[in-house]
TrEMBL record:
This is CST complex subunit CTC1. Keywords: Chromosome, DNA-binding, Nucleus, Telomere. One of its GO terms (biological process) is telomere maintenance via telomere lengthening. InterPro entries: CTC1 (IPR029156), CTC1-like (IPR042617). The gene is LOC116318502. It comes from Oreochromis aureus.
Length: 1253
């Protein structure tokens, strides 16, 4: 009889649809299942080779009917699908369950989405799968039919299913593109047990045919004694509880795994190496009672020669085995299997207490071995083996071989022998679990969530775990490297760096920062089998110095956000800010600066961790606000950088950066200073109005970085840097994989870096194209400024354009090249010198970006690409009349595509006449010289904005006054007019500046100062330590007689130690904060309607140091210190003066009239105070000299004797050796001497500072 008709007669379909469905079932089985089953050998459970097509079809239909939720009907909406169709056509993750109703499916989907927030449940498909389960490679199970096979993952696997036709009623399918796996196809997740289509006799979990009588079974203790005495040919049957299951390993082409059998006293390792028994790894579970037969005793080479039980081809595995003489096995199992849903609170508390002991030291901690069960809530990085369990516990599986099936969000897992670590890395959850080669990880429930796009923050090919296997680093370093890789994958320039390159860069950065380093090769056998257990995660380090990576945009946004909120406006004023007038307040607020170190020191940091930046060094772009400096760029943004480097000529000194090889280098900046300059235009009437924003007319900030090249790590050098390091004798960059990286990866990374370097250096031509070059030595450089120039090209218009010029000496002739020589050493042909030639290079427009790297005294190779014409590098001369000698240099306009390469070692130029470097003066030499144009160097001690106007060019606060000092303590004021030049960064207190081409001038009072010219150049040659805020050098100690008679030392600040001769003048006044008039109940000026006032004070006395006398002026808070009044007494004096507004006192005045009546108690008090003997005391002052000049320019001095002179000085700082305590308003007036002992026991004078009048 026809098998199809027999099937229809047996099932009896009720509709035409059911008949058609049965025919399709029969056709599918005949084409995809029957050839496979009928051609197979007898299975281990019985013979099925003689099964007919009708029997297979009938078994399949019956199995399907039994799984349906509705009886007496066939699932005509479902169809059978072959394995090849499933793999090739199903591209979305899906679920199939024949027993579901619609309501059940909806409830299941809601539970799935609630379990994993942000994820959608698997979509349901009406598909049926039938095939044979067969063992694949490395013990995996595969569903096979005549069209192909697909890998299967099971929650509980039985060898009973092998080589038998099965029907899958409930399964998930995860395609390869949805899981991020390396497999060419997806995999099946079997939710329920398969239904056997040809059921046979149940035989349990037997891995070999034929049931063997379990006679001679011994326990673990007895087997241990037999293990010590190896007998040839002996086979053992051992029962016990599974204590641990190690992961599957492949070493030298051999695949194996180990598990241990335990009892109350000891444990025995069992080695499974036979390929037909590797599937046992999915059958044994920790805590399960099993019996393994036909074990032989063998010696495991590499494990200290210890004997081990080894599985043979005749071995069988019997699960849920209970020995007849064992009564406590179940009780023992319940005690040994301890599963934790979260780490113990006492462990965290103990670790937290330990963490608080020392926040700065690097400490080594011991991990704790625990068991854990939970749900995967986040996949941090599949490639790095990082996950999050239950939303709060991290999981790292990188120390185990990568599993074929990666964990998915929503999977429920069970871990045994996992290591618990507390705060190993600040970028991950505090509680971390880490698996080793003894740990077991088993999925107890598959995820119901659908697929979400894989996060490419770390590559999915396992580059980092492979590096971990080679280097065996600390788990803390590995976690930080993974986090850094995820950040760099987003912040580095896209399309240039492959994901593997990102991992290599992160690894290189970790090696430069790690203190632990590698720990040698792992001993896998000791890690799996030794007691007590040791592995790479048994110990781990905890450090508070772990760096925090920030992208450039994150750093800039953080600084700009905190620019004005970090400090209230009142904090930007001096301590006596409440007594400043409106003009003084607005002047102080016009410019302020905030410097933060990348290393947290106290509260002066953006973060509580040391910061790290990674980016490419570039020349300034056209859109950059800072044209004087290079910039650090990543994919998120660019930040201007003030760069210095160590000087080779002088040890410990710094200099400006001049090497163009840094352009295009990918670097990691490990130490830097963040600078935020704040510019504010305001009209605050008084101190009390600072909280009202309506008085602010304009505000902005500028953010940039300061660091030395000594604090960089080159992660990927440019082609020019590779050449520079090669000739310097250093490696251009170590290979982080220690030559394990493939040649393909090296070539790819090298070619991309080369292309990137050429793009950054601004060349329009490729490397093999021809070019011409000449070698120059820069003699002088002018500052960059806005100038009115003509059009550089036809598509440009004439107008204001950035320009600067460089005067250089040409070394040798113009040389033609077939390819760009970059910064290769100078050749003999280039150094042929017939006659030294001068040239002026003019830079304008986009070419001004070369300004930061061109420094006087350095050699460069100027390259003109895409040409073989030497005339393009020959400048234009200046024509003159016949008989007239023209001494002007030729001029050469630098073009857009030209490039400059620094020649750091011009060895063949020793015979060339070296240029005489310009004389760099100190501040003291500038004060004493008579030159008009000077070049000098000094440390910035003060920066003040001298105006608040906005120029037409849009530059605000263009007037700047810098105070520079030298090591001798002498200071000089420099005035800058920046309205016609881009704003120069780095003009900060503590930085050392080199000022070239500045004009030295004399003020009307005889003070020396310098002014900025259009050709002036400002270069930052050394960066100060902004974190320590070191004060400038102390002013020199001066003698009054010598100081007054000296005509060379003009406008210097000096220290004077003398004795007070008399008190000449004292003025106390309440003034209007706007106009400065006397303020009583209101402003005395009829044109001013201000309602705010400030208290001002001024005093004058005579001091004598034995060589001369001087009139010294005091103002502001120095007057209170001079009078010796406490804060409360000073406030009481202000209240007493509030009604009358002002008072002037002349204690020793001749023909001077004091303000007040004869019975004025306040006047009498001040006269008594100023004339008292306690005022006549020794003082130590820091003063600034003011000398009045006659028209001839000589100072006016009143000579008292041959050794004494009197002149005027303004006190800046006063050290009072005798303090006076005064009570007034009817209270007793008294004085007492007070000395403040220092740490050595000597008297210490109190220093009180104020701003000069």
């Amino acid at each position: 009889m026809d098998p199809l008709q027999e099937l229809l007669d047996r099932v009896k379909p009720s509709t035409e649809a059911e008949s058609l469905w049965l025919k399709n079932i029969f056709t599918f089985i005949s084409e995809h299942l029957s050839p496979l089953v009928c051609s197979s050998a007898p299975s281990q459970t019985g013979n099925h080779g003689d099964l007919s097509l009708f029997d297979l079809s009938m078994c399949a239909v019956q199995a399907i009917q039994q799984q349906m939720c509705v009886a007496h009907s066939l699932p005509v909406s479902y169809r059978l699908l072959s394995v090849s169709e499933l793999v090739s056509q199903q591209h979305l993750a899906c679920v199939s369950n024949l027993s579901w109703s619609t309501n059940q499916q909806r409830a299941w989907a809601r539970e799935a989405e609630l379990a994993v927030p942000g994820q959608r449940a698997l979509s349901r498909v009406n598909l049926l799968l039938i095939g044979c389960l067969r063992e694949g490679r490395d013990g995996e199970y595969r569903l096979t039919d005549a069209s192909g096979s697909v890998m299967c993952e099971c929650l509980s696997l039985s060898p009973l299913w092998l080589d038998r036709p099965v029907f899958l009623p409930h399964w998930n399918y995860i395609p390869h593109n949805a899981s991020g796996q390396e497999e060419t196809a997806g995999f099946l997740e079997l939710i329920g047990s398969p239904v056997l289509l040809c059921p046979g006799a149940e035989q349990g979990l037997a891995a070999a045919p034929g049931r063997v009588e379990l006679s001679g079974v011994v326990g673990v203790g007895e087997a241990g004694r037999l293990l010590r005495h190896r007998v040839k040919g002996q086979r053992l049957s051992v029962f016990g509880e599974v204590g641990s299951v190690c992961p599957l390993l492949a070493v030298a082409g051999t695949t194996f795994f180990c598990f241990t059998l335990t009892d109350e006293s000891r444990s025995l390792p069992v080695l499974v190496q036979d390929s037909s028994r590797l599937s046992w790894i999915q059958c044994v579970c920790v805590g399960q009672s099993v019996c393994v037969t036909a074990l032989r005793v063998c010696a495991l080479r590499g494990w200290r020669g210890n004997n081990i039980l080894c599985v043979t081809k005749r071995s069988e595995l019997h699960a849920d085995y209970t020995h007849t003489q064992e009564h406590t096995q179940e009780h023992t199992h319940s005690e040994s299997l301890l599963l934790m849903s979260q780490p113990a609170e006492e462990d965290c508390e103990e670790a937290e207490h330990e963490e608080q002991l020392d926040q700065s030291a690097v400490r080594t901690k011991q991990s704790k071995v625990i068991s854990y069960q939970g749900m995967v809530t986040e996949v941090v990085s599949e490639g790095a083996g990082l996950y999050v369990l239950d939303g709060k516990v991290g999981l790292c599986v990188a120390y185990q071989p990568a599993a074929k099936r990666k964990l998915r969000a929503g999977d429920r897992v069970e871990l045994h022998h996992a290591h618990f670590l507390y705060r190993p890395c600040p970028d991950f959850p505090p509680s971390m679990l880490c698996t080793c080669l003894r740990s077991s990880l088993r999925v107890t429930a598959f995820s119901r969530a659908g697929w979400s796009p894989p996060d490419n923050r770390c590559p999915g090919d396992g580059a980092l775990p492979r590096l971990l296997l080679q280097r065996n680093i600390d788990v803390s370093d590995y976690l930080w490297t993974c986090h850094l890789s995820s950040q760099l994958a987003h912040s580095l320039v896209q399309g240039v760096w492959r994901q593997q390159c990102v991992c290599l860069l992160s690894w290189r950065l970790m090696e430069t920062q790690s203190r632990a380093g590698g720990r040698g090769r792992r001993d896998i056998y000791s890690e799996m089998l030794d007691e007590p257990h040791t592995c790479p995660v048994t110990q781990y380090t905890v450090s508070s110095a772990v760096r925090q990576y920030l992208s450039v945009s994150e750093l800039l946004e953080s600084l700009q956000t905190d620019c004005w909120s970090s400090a209230p406006l009142s904090s930007l004023l001096p301590p006596d800010g409440s007594n400043l007038t409106s003009s003084q307040i607005n002047g102080f607020l016009s410019w302020s600066c905030r410097t933060l170190s990348s290393e947290p020191r106290g509260g002066d940091a953006v973060r509580q961790r040391t910061l790290l930046l990674v980016g490419v060094l570039e020349l300034p772009s056209q859109t950059s606000e800072f044209k004087h400096s290079m910039q650090l760029r990543d994919a998120t943004g660019a930040a201007a950088c003030v760069l210095t480097e160590s000087s080779e000529e002088e040890e410990g000194a710094q200099r400006a950066v001049f090497n163009s090889a840094w352009i295009g280098c990918l670097v990691g900046v490990v130490q830097f200073t963040m600078v935020t300059e704040r510019f504010l235009q305001s009209d605050f009437p008084s101190y009390q109005h600072l909280h009202q924003d309506r008085f602010i007319t304009h505000k902005r900030c500028r953010v940039y970085l300061q660091f030395s090249l000594d604090h960089l790590h080159i992660l990927s050098p440019s082609v020019a840097m590779e050449t520079h390091l090669r000739h310097k004798g250093e490696e251009p960059g170590g290979d982080v994989t220690a030559r394990k990286q493939t040649v393909e990866e090296k070539e790819t990374a090298g070619s991309k870096r080369k292309r990137r370097g050429e793009e950054e250096e601004g060349g329009d031509s490729g490397n093999p194209w021809p070019c011409v070059s000449m070698v120059i030595r820069v003699e002088q450089k002018e500052g960059v400024s806005w100038r009115n120039t003509g059009a550089e090209a036809e598509d440009q218009e004439a107008g204001l354009r950035l320009c600067f010029s460089v005067k250089a000496t040409v070394i040798g002739p113009v040389v033609s090249w077939r390819r760009d020589p970059k910064n290769e050493p100078i050749t003999e042909k280039e150094s042929e010198q017939k006659q030294e030639r001068k040239v002026v290079l003019v830079f304008s427009g986009v070419c001004t970006r070369w300004f930061p790297v061109l420094q006087p005294g350095c050699f460069y190779r100027l390259i003109a690409a895409n040409t073989q014409d030497p005339s393009v590098l020959i400048g234009c001369g200046v024509s003159g009349r016949s008989g007239v000698d023209v001494h002007a240099e030729s001029t050469l306009q630098v073009r857009r595509g030209w490039r400059f390469h620094t020649l750091t070692r011009p060895l063949l130029l020793l015979t060339c006449r070296q240029a005489v470097p310009p004389t760099v003066l100190s501040v003291s030499e500038v004060l004493d010289c008579s030159s008009e144009l000077v070049c000098f160097q000094g440390v910035v001690s003060e920066r003040i904005s001298v105006n608040n106007r906005t120029a037409h060019s849009g530059h605000t606060h263009s007037g700047v006054r810098l105070t520079l000092c030298d090591q001798a303590g002498r200071s000089l004021q420099v005035y800058l007019e920046l309205s016609h030049t881009p704003y120069p960064p780095g003009l900060l207190p503590g930085n050392t500046l080199l000022l070239s081409g500045f004009q030295r001038r004399l003020s009307r009072t005889g003070s020396v100062y310098c002014t900025y010219l259009p050709v002036s150049l400002i270069t930052v040659v050394s960066l100060g330590d902004s974190s320590s805020a070191q004060p400038p050098p102390p002013a020199p100690i001066m003698h009054l007689g010598e100081w007054a008679l000296s005509s060379k030392q003009r406008c210097t600040v000096g220290q004077v130690k003398g004795h007070v001769v008399c008190f000449l003048f004292l003025q106390l006044q309440w003034s209007c904060s706007l106009c400065g008039s006397v303020y009583t109940q209101g402003c005395s000026s009829s044109q001013c309607h201000s309602t705010s006032s400030v208290f001002q004070s001024k005093a004058k006395l005579v001091i004598d140091d034995g060589t001369g006398e001087a009139h010294v002026w005091f103002s502001a808070a120095l007057v209170r210190a001079l009078l010796g009044l406490a804060d409360a007494q000073w406030e009481g004096l202000q209240r007493a003066l509030r009604v009358r507004g002002h008072i002037r006192v002349f204690p020793r005045g001749q023909s001077q009239v004091c303000d007040g009546h004869a019975d004025d108690f306040l006047l009498h008090f001040l006269l008594c105070l100023c004339s008292s003997d306690v005022m006549i005391r020794p003082l130590s002052l820091t003063c600034r000299k003011h000398t009045n000049q006659r028209p001839e320019g000589n100072p006016t001095l009143t000579t008292l004797t041959n050794l004494t002179a009197t002149f005027r000085v303004v006190c800046v700082c006063v050290c009072v050796c005798v303090c006076v305590c005064v009570c007034f308003r009817g209270e007793e007036v008294h004085s007492r001497r007070q000395r403040v002992p220092d740490q050595t026991g000597s008297s210490l004078s109190a220093h009180l500072s104020a701003h000069p009048a």
